[in-house]
Amino acid sequence: MEIHQLRYFCAVAQHGTFTRAALAEHVAQPSLSQQILKLEDELGAKLFDRMASGVKLTACGRAFLPNARRLLCDLGNAKTEILEMAGKEKGEVTVGAIPTIGPYLLPDVLAGFSREHRGIAIKVVEEMTPILLDRLHDGAIDVAVVALPVPGEWIRSVELFQEPMFVVVPAKHRYARRDSIRLNDVKDEPFLLLKEGHCFRQSTITACRRARVTPNVVFESGQFETILAMVSAGAGVSAVPAMAARPVKGCRYLRIADHRARRRVGAIMLRRHFETRAQRVFLRHLAQVCLRRFGMALQERETP
Amino acid sequence: MEIHQLRYFCAVAQHGTFTRAALAEHVAQPSLSQQILKLEDELGAKLFDRMASGVKLTACGRAFLPNARRLLCDLGNAKTEILEMAGKEKGEVTVGAIPTIGPYLLPDVLAGFSREHRGIAIKVVEEMTPILLDRLHDGAIDVAVVALPVPGEWIRSVELFQEPMFVVVPAKHRYARRDSIRLNDVKDEPFLLLKEGHCFRQSTITACRRARVTPNVVFESGQFETILAMVSAGAGVSAVPAMAARPVKGCRYLRIADHRARRRVGAIMLRRHFETRAQRVFLRHLAQVCLRRFGMALQERETP
DNA sequence: TAAAAATACTCCATAGGTATTTTAT
DNA sequence: ATAAAATACCTATGGAGTATTTTTA
Q1: Which of A49, B110, B215, B222 is most exposed by smallest CB count within 10 Å?
Q2: pLDDT tens per residue across all 304 residues of chain A
Q3: Could you count the other beta carbons within 10 Å of the beta carbon of residue A196?
Q4: Residue B260: CB partners within 8 Å, gap ≥ 6?
């Protein structure tokens, strides 16, 4: 039994086909096939049922999978421990963030962090959630800050805070003086929406649907700043999360009466991924900053 | 990092020199050196201090050792689990026993066991303790029944029972009618002793020393049956553990007044060794039989 | 100087690659 | 017909061997 065989086994179990697992592991599909066959031979049991479209874990495979994962994780942890003890661990964390969170949360987090932890370098990757998930899986990033929930057995999520959504209207809008609003009140207004792919677009649409509203979308953009500029120019209304509701000349933010109109923000990482000290320190700092800024009692809500 | 590197690392840590570790792992010393060097290179830290006579774990090595051991053990357990699930695990236990225990304990144990567990084959190896320890380490036997204590961090011991020692005298001896005796009473008698190497020989000598007695050894044998035959022929006296004190024509057994004159019997196995179902079943049966025969409240007394 | 680890090199087992075939839908 | 896994075969990396040198108590 070899370590790479365990890796390959986990990859196939995760991806569901040898071909895709081979891509993920950067080996040719036959190499992977051979190693799995060899592993099955040594264990005396088939681990996968080969179907025409992909593979399925057998009972033995299901029994073996958690052990294999834990072994790989322990192996990585043991190595990391020594690397850090020898001072060879660079102390670098690569953090991903979605575009609708990154610019509002990370500057604050990073400033404080680099002040308190001079030794640890932080890299930031800003992509949309599906890309961040890929980067997590291929090891390019260590942790990602995204909107929860993120389903998937491979993902460990820690909720950082929840933030309400606001409707944003032009300062000269007839509702601009109101304190709160229902989405139904703006159902006929021209609506500015985030581009396809941003998960907050989906949050907005979901909130509208709850209010029996089909937004009249007249403009799409990839960032809130553009949308806010358009709103202030009187082009229509939109919805933004609290962290994006910064004072902008010509914009008024109205609390949405529906308390379900909120976004959950959390950190996600690979369940199997081992943690370096730098990662632990960064996560703790991130949680502290969020707690301070958003005043939420932070419990580590693991999404199962 | 490779599995064999972990094995080699553990072997070197255990044996204290590359050369002896190489012998134990059945590889050439340079191969082992290379793999350890490669491991140290990958971990970025020296694991051993090389001295002229052998090696010594560095701080990193000490930190890594328990992880490496646990990983190897977990690896074996994961494999064993699947082997058993696939029905490929033969269900075979090889048990070692020292000659002064084997013939008195094992027949009873094995008879009942093979009746209750038809599927599991038991092999028996009868050797003296040091040999059994070697066999344990090279994997030839799974568990050994020996006299405790057996020191060594690699060994896990489970005490099965304690048995008193008896002095055995000829039927026509002047003390033959007595109920109990002190070793001092027979200090001038010709003494029949087990051969060098049997641990019960040492137990006997220790008991004598406690009684300020230097036995007058006139005969040595490797088995109690011979000694008992000699005693019954009037050649002298001896000491035997309770299980060997079977009715023999011409022999009388006298309780020794010193309650410290007793032998602890236990099962030992490698701490790092993973257990098969068959091994667990056998150990439970062994403990049950001992409990029934020797009526001791069985607590798993682990010797630390 | 003697015991042990490291080095130099040689060899071959095997992981991994490419091309192709088989299989199941 | 198509997608996926298995097979055949080749290459080359690197683990293990032998012989030798270096190191240090």
Answers
A1: A49
A2: 889 989 899 888 888 889 888 988 889 889 898 988 888 888 888 889 888 887 888 888 888 988 988 888 888 888 888 888 887 777 888 999 999 998 988 998 999 888 888 888 899 999 999 888 888 887 789 999 999 898 887 889 999 888 889 999 998 888 878 888 888 888 888 999 999 989 999 989 988 888 888 888 889 998 899 999 999 888 889 999 988 888 888 898 988 888 888 899 999 998 877 778 888 889 999 988 888 887 654 444 433 3
A3: 10
A4: B207, B210
Å from A52 (CA) to D4 (C1')? 6
Whether B273 and B236 share a structural domain: no
Residue A65: closest CA among chain B residues belongs to which residue?
Answer: B78
Give Cβ neighbours of residue B295 (< 8 Å, ≥ 6 apart).
Answer: none
Segments forming the whole domain that contains residue B223: 162-262
Indicate the pTM of the whole model. 0.76
Question: What nucleotides of chain C have any atom within 7 angstroms of a protein Cβ?
Answer: 2-8, 15-19, 23-25
Asked if residue A190 and residue A48 are part of one domain, the reply reads no
In this complex, which of A43, A70, A71 lies closest to B83 when CB atoms are compared?
A43
* Residues in B lying within 8 Å of A, measured between beta carbons: 1-3, 42-45, 59-60, 63-64, 67-68, 70-71, 74-75, 77-79, 81-83, 85-86, 88
Contact at CB, A42 and B79, closer than 8 angstroms: yes
How far is the C-alpha of A175 from the C-alpha of A177, rounded, in Å?
A: 6
Residue type present at position A243: M
Check whether residue A101 and residue A187 sit in a common domain: yes
Domain termination site, one of B68, B85, B102? B85
- The domain tally of chain A equals 2
Q: Are A101 and A50 found together in one domain?
A: no
How far away is chain A from the Cα of B31, in angstroms, using its nearest Cα?
Answer: 18
- B258 in the same domain as B177: yes
Tell me, in Å, how far CA of B23 is from C1' of C17? 36
Q: Which residues contact A4 (CB under 8 A, 6 or more apart)?
A: A35
Q: Would the CB atoms of B81 and A63 count as touching at under 8 Å?
A: yes
B209-212: long-range contacts, CB 8 A cutoff, minimum separation 24? B210/B183, B210/B258, B210/B260, B210/B261, B211/B182, B211/B183, B211/B184, B211/B187, B211/B258, B212/B184
- Statement to judge: residues A227 and A196 lie in one domain: yes
Answer yes or no: do B176 and B224 share one domain.
yes
B244, two tokens: 């060997």
Whether residue B219 sits in one domain with residue B185: yes
